[in-house]
Amino acid sequence: MERAPRSDALESGAGPIIARLAAALAQIGTALRSGVWRTHGPRGLSPTQVQTLAALQVAERPLQLTEIARHLAVTAPTASEAVATLVGNRLVGKTKRAGDGRAVAISLSARGRIAAGWPPAVLREIAFLSPTERGSCLRSLVTVIRALQRSGELPACRMCASCQYFRPYAHPRSARPHHCAFVEAAFADAHLRLECRDDALADQARQDEIWCRFARRAG
Ligand code: SF4
Fold first, then answer.
1. Which of 53, 128, 179, 191 has the lowest tally of Cβ within 10 angstroms?
2. 97 part of a folded domain
3. Does the beta carbon of 59 lie inside 6 Å of ligand 1?
4. 187 pairs with which residues across the strands?
């Protein structure tokens, strides 16, 4: 009896690539969570409090309570409770916005900035990827994140993929294929932003157009 080539056996035994990619992302999520837990567990911080620190770190700017609640996909009272504990631990500070006494901005304190760092082991391994691998990995992840935002599974964030200034693949065949019309400059996949202070959310029609061009999908 003729035996199947070894490569066929390998491929059929590996399972669907989509499931393996989801499993790989879950494993990285576990590494992030366990690294963060090793840092914060002894401080007695809850997962919501840790996520609040992470949201402030990613945003690189003060956030209002409603923005934190949106980032974490939790209710305003839950976010408020987490922030109150972090204020008590002197990991974040609250300041009133000039000209609007009711709006409070929450920012990381110096102590909070140190505490909010990503697990060093995860950063070290990502740093081993080549620049091309990092860029292409970021583009793929941004595509999945944006798709999940569009279907309501994730809250929106101030990212290139939904920004009215984003011109995906405006410079085809270039190492910097994308264009930011805010600063009028070309940029590479590696420079795609997940949080940008200059971002301006495009209207729905423009978001759809950007999505089709960026994800190379029909709609
Ligand atoms: S303004 Fe910021 S979010 Fe918008 S395209 Fe430029 S870099 Fe990206």
1. 128
2. yes
3. no
4. 178
